Amino acid sequence: MADSQTLEVQEKKEAAPRGGEQTKPARYFVPVTDIYETDQALVVVMEMPGVDRKDIDIRIEEDVLRVEGRIDHAKYDGMEPLYTEYSVGPFARSFALSHMIDQQRIDAAFTDGVLTLNLHKVQKAAPRRIEIG
Amino acid sequence: MALFYQDPFDALSQFQRTLDQLRSSSWLADSPSGGGTYPPLNVFRKGDDIIIVAEVPGVAKADLRIEVKGSTLRIAGARSVGPAGPASSHRRERRGGRFDRTIELPIAIDSEKVKAECRDGILALHLPRAEHDKPRSIPIA
To answer: Which pLDDT score is estimated for B33?
Structure first.
């Protein structure tokens, strides 16, 4: 049972810059992610604590799903750090989509800092009669 | 030092650097009552008060338990991960389980006035410094 285990800290992983893509000075983090598949969909669950719903950007470009979550560090204005155990920064991660996924049918939900994406599978093509013209 | 900068990304990277510098500083000593190390905490000072911020993604408010006694603070709870129904797993990085962490603050706090807030996977605790513990300025006679 997962619930009887004691949770341990997972160190936040920094996103590796690819091909000089990241030109911004700040560091990005890789959201901890689960991916599982049901009969209808591929479900992607990503942890992005501290990100506001409106600061999540989900886009599909050339069969790549990219998720980015910005954080509003202005909330920390006027606060002096005394002791820290984790860093704070935006999250970003990309996934290549297979042709099994219907790119028009993706829903997203965000609860308690966890983003859940439902990537619906393509409906099996119904048998179709071809008329001879 | 309060953080105010012009460029938002400069500000963020400065902020990240400041956080890195204070990685496990000696301010917060390990409590003898110990417990786990989850959730990871950042401790800030705002005016006279202490603000503790923890990342607890996927933990519902109802599953969190915060207790304060004297200058000891306990954060406990649980979270479950994984699909609700039958599913095959492709990637499993998230962890579920219980947590229970106790810390001992090096200052006295007013436990009656502690406020907790949990939003978007972030738990923020506002711990006002006890009146008797605040520094007092001594007038020179």
So the answer is: 54
